[in-house]
Design brief:
Elements: H1 2-25, H2 187-195, H3 210-237, H4 241-256, H5 265-269, H6 280-293, H7 301-319, H8 326-337, H9 345-358, H10 366-376, H11 381-394, H12 398-412
Helix pairs in contact: 3-4, 6-7, 7-8, 8-9, 9-10, 10-11, 11-12
Length: about 425
């Protein structure tokens, strides 16, 4: 066992010694050259192609590159030791890549001198030969060769018309059109004419009573609405969008303004009307008014039906003042004005008053309804007590008489 280990150690020692000896002898072979960032040869510039002007001249000789620098001297070899031990079996050293020799610059092959070529000449039949032009890159704008001027024949001048003496323009408003035709005006003239507003005579309002003033207010409202509508049509015909929008906003504001009816038909008719005869047309209007008044609908549709009913009742009073339906129509108008949709207490009381004035024997409870409005809504105690006393004296409805007596005691303490 010990002998085998000794033999192995001896063999390994021989291998190490043989490798070091081989390295010492072949130092030159495995020595790497010094590292250089750039080769020691001049950079070779690429040949520049000759310009068209230099094609005729022989090409210049390319300067030869200097020979490469000599190799540095190899280091001296180290002599082996004097005493040599018994040589162990040699082991092949590791194979390394051989040192690459420095690259030598490759000379560009010399081109044979080219024979200069003559530019082709173009033969023109009439014009002289033009000068040779340069290639498109270096060519300069060449002037066209002068041509022989030829006489140009001008067309004959047209004969001028005889001078026309301008006539003075006539005003469009004063010019009389031919029979059966309207005068033609330009757009500017039309705008100037339409923009003129004729002065309106001033209305003397001092001597007018209530009826005249109310009629003047109603007339002015209608004229204002008509003028706005006509002005909108004018702007629409001219496609003036901005001013059309102004008119629309003003018309919308005008529609929202409450148009108070200061005088109604019942007030204008006065207290002296009397129902004297039966008229079928008035009966038909009264029936239609009742249908609109009692038509089941929800707000705001209900108010529109009530407005139609008011128009029916007012038409009876206005067109048929002798009908036996005028008192009934006034009572129904009082119910509509005193209802939830209008709450016009003054008109309601006025309509009830016209009802008993036109027909003192009316079966409608106009006195009691008017007394309730004076008591609950208008807070007029004097007028309420007056009407409650008339209810007690004239009404044939027992319930209304009892309520009137209770309110008299409450208001007067008696």
């Amino acid at each position: 066992m010990y002998r085998f280990a000794l033999v192995v150690l001896t063999f390994v020692a021989c291998l190490v010694w043989a490798g070091s000896t081989a390295l010492a002898e072949g130092g030159d072979e495995f020595q790497l050259p010094p590292v250089k960032l750039k080769p020691d040869r001049p950079t070779q510039a690429k040949p520049i192609p000759p310009t068209p002007d230099e094609r005729a001249a022989p090409p210049a000789e390319t300067p030869k590159e200097p020979p490469p620098a000599e190799k540095p001297p190899a280091p001296p070899k180290v002599a082996p030791p004097a005493e040599k031990a018994p040589e162990p079996p040699k082991v092949a050293p590791p194979v390394l890549a051989p040192k690459a020799p420095p690259e030598e610059p490759v000379e560009a092959p010399k081109k044979p001198p080219e024979t200069p070529k003559k530019p082709p000449t173009l033969e023109l039949p009439t014009e002289p030969p033009a000068e040779p032009t340069l290639p498109p890159v270096l060519a300069k704008p060449a002037t066209a060769p002068a041509k022989t001027a030829r006489p140009v024949e001008l067309p004959p001048e047209p004969a001028l018309p005889p001078p026309v003496t301008p006539k003075p323009a006539k005003a469009p408003d004063l010019a009389l059109p031919p029979a059966g035709q309207e005068p033609r005006r330009t757009a500017v003239q039309k705008e100037l004419v339409e923009a003129q507003v004729e002065p309106q005579p001033a209305v003397d309002l001092a001597g007018m009573g209530e009826v005249g003033l109310v009629e003047e207010v109603s007339r002015t409202r209608k004229a204002y609405a008509r003028a706005l509508t006509a002005l909108k049509d004018y702007y629409v015909s001219r496609a003036n969008v901005a001013k059309i929008q102004w008119i629309d906003s003003e018309l919308a504001a005008f529609d929202k303004v409450p148009k108070i009816q200061y005088l109604v038909v019942a007030e204008l008719a006065g207290p002296n009307l009397r129902p004297t005869r039966h008229i079928e047309a008035a009966d038909q209007l009264y029936k239609e008014g009742i249908n609109y008044k009692d038509y089941p609908a929800f707000p705001p549709g209900k108010k529109e039906y009530l407005k139609v009913a008011l128009e029916k009742f007012q038409t009876i009073i206005e067109k048929y003042p002798e009908s036996d339906k005028i008192a009934d129509a006034a009572f129904r108008m009082g119910e509509i004005y005193g209802g939830w949709y209008f709450e016009d207490w003054a008109r309601a009381v006025q309509s009830y008053e016209r009802c008993w004035q036109w027909d003192p024997a009316t079966p409608n409870p106009a006195l009691f309804n008017a007394a309730k409005i004076y008591d609950d809504k208008l807070k007029n105690r004097v007028k309420a007590v007056e009407l409650y006393n008339r209810v007690v004296a004239e009404s044939k409805i027992e319930d209304h008489v009892n309520q009137a007596q209770d309110r008299i005691r409450a208001l007067t303490g008696k």
